Amino acid sequence: MRCQLTGREPGFGNRVSHSQRKTRRRWNPNVQRKRYFVPSLNRFVTLTLSAKGIKTVDKIGVEAAVARLRAQGENI
């Protein structure tokens, strides 16, 4: 449940009822598995990305995104 590109993870907090009783909850990021073809590797790679991560790949390109992930030490 973590975006490989942006590092977005679940947020934690309290669910507060009408009577102000507080119980723990989590906000999950919109994480999806997306498959991209990388011409330099001549193969498909599957990335786990948040919605913002998908937009980032669309903006900078899949080659730059893969290079950024490799610089972070991510195994692709």
From TrEMBL:
Belongs to the bacterial ribosomal protein bL28 family. GO terms for cellular component: ribosome. Signal peptide: none annotated. Residues 1-25 are annotated as: Disordered. The gene is rpmB2. InterPro entries: Ribosomal_bL28 (IPR026569), Ribosomal_bL28/bL31-like_sf (IPR034704), Ribosomal_bL28_bact-type (IPR001383), Ribosomal_bL28_sf (IPR037147). This is Large ribosomal subunit protein bL28. The keyword Protein biosynthesis does not apply. Keywords: Ribonucleoprotein, Ribosomal protein.
